Amino acid sequence: MSTCYQKSLRAFLEQESVIKTKHQAKELHARLIRTMAPVSAILNSKIISIYSNFNLLQDSLTLFNTIDSPQPTKAWKSIIKCYASSGLFLNSLTSFNEMRSVGRIPDRNVFPSVLKSCVQLRDLRLGESVHGCVMRLGLDCDLYTGNALMNMYAKLQLPKAQQPFDEFPERKKQVVGLKDMTEKPIEMEALGMDTVRKVFQTMPIRDVVSWNTIIQGNVHGGRYKEALGMLREMGNSDLKPDSFTLSTVLPIFSKNVDLKKGKEIHGFAIRHGFDGDGFIGSSLIDMYANCTRVEDSYKLFSLLPQCDAVSWNSIIAACVQNGRFDEGLELFRQMLRADIEPLGHSFSIIMPACAHLTTLTLGKQLHAYIIRTGNDENLYVASSLVDMYAKCGNIKNARWIFDNMEIQDSVSWTAMIMGYAMHGHYDAISLFEEMQMAGVQSNSVVFVAVLTACSHAGLVNEAWKYFSTMTQNHGIAPGLEHYAALADLLGRAGRLQEAYDFISSMHIKPTGSVWSALLSACRVHRNFEMADKVAKEIFKIDPEYTGAYALLSNMYGAAGSWKEAQKIRITMRRKGMKKKPACSWIEVKNKVHAFVAGDKSHPFYGQIDEALQDILERIENEGYVPDTSEIPHDVDEEQKRYAVSTHSERLAIAFGIISSPAGTTIRVTKNLRVCVDCHTAIKFISKTMGREIIVRDNIRFHHFKDGNCSCGDYW
Fold it and tell me: Which chain positions lie within coiled-coil regions (predicted)?
């Protein structure tokens, strides 16, 4: 072959980027063997480098083993890189050690792959050792190595990351004791970012990747102020943020609901041509959704040149988190029709829509689809299924899924415990104890679930114990939901003054809803003096709190103080307030049917009314006596009886009975608390009609069966 041809081959070897496919790489190798055999170690190393660009691990190893030891540094670099790209991180690190043992000195091209392997193996100590090696070789000022070091420390944010600097006395040394490390996880993360910052500051040259790494590390660590400060510094250093930078900082404005600054980033993206980028588009959709601007999220989604699974997930999540559940479900269907395969995350996004709408049939269909697509082993999907089944009233299915999960993290434990709490099961507390014994880290939400379970079961002493444990043993500061659950429990137990004092001494300002729980308890225990005190507290916070006026009016009406009740209703009318209408809905044959009190609009109202009359006659024969104490006194007795018998949940149950085979469980959801009369009536209905009736109101689940309710008349 001519010298000119050989020169052409050498040119290809020097310019690896011109080789575009695996086939071209292998053809180049074959031509090299035919024209220049025996091929030198240097040229073989270049072929291995090209192979590693296409992740051809076996071909790279075969050629590597033909080279006499010690192989050139370039060959070692390529093998280490190829192992890391193939997910064989231990092999990559083993090759790095072998390289050093044969006397080859790593160069700047080796360390990024080695540090990537340390990250993937979550081995910080090894990463620190590699950092020490980098510094001894004087490569800590190299741009790519510095970026890889920053990435490692940002992803493994722990205080031990300070140690590589300890070898150099001129660099500030910070020692953290083992006791501090175990007791202060937040400080540990902060110290880890200190190391990222130190690496960043020692780099003489920084590119966009360097800035992105430190900004992203701060965002993930919740240090938003520092992240935005670094973004400003980046602009001052004459480097323009790229699409990755913008998608990294947008979640800050989402979390802080800062629409103005979010729009500024949106404007920057448009001016610099990033608005068509998928990641930027998805981040902007999330930002507008968190700021309750769903219409803006829709506009952005419609303007994206190409919608992938991530952008579909973002717009579906935008609807679901803003309570537009039907729209979220419709968008999910559209995604499937567009042949976009859902990610595992897609199911955990859409499942809460089924849970909130209590559409068990649709939830089961989604569950079947999840199994068919092999996503049932996804931890987050399984946890969302537990939550969905529990909220749709099927606690047995929820527990079955929970028990069959290979790994149960804090999210899945919390979902199951909260499910039991909503259903009033004491199992919530025993399961929480199991969680503690399993060594799973407790979080704020799981304590809300436990306190709620105690509230529904009337376990005052146990609730105080868990409330103290939460603060003292777990370091979790009580939030409004914790206070509300405990105040609700004290009120239910009749300890009204204790509840009043407890709310008054909260370290954070109570909301109207916290006081409202106590007002409901005052109504149950007919304590008018305390009710007046609590109402005054509510009206100080929110003078337009309609629920408090309605509760007071009903309370006075039930006690026969109709003049007081009338005064409150006149005040409500004068202020333009309207009581939230009670609504109940039931799913029959894959369709949701909604009812309001006295509703005659349903196409089957005639049959529903007949069923109501029949049911009423039957339960009265069994001893049911309507409680009409809350109906205004100026209404005759027959009208009172009709008014209570046509409450929304009674209509839904009657429709369920005439629309399903005998013995079928009836599931009804109501937006308000079930009234005392309906609660009594449904117990009788469950017995006389031989049905299990599950009613979910805004407080909890009620399982009615054989004339009894799971709440034990304590709700």
Answer: none
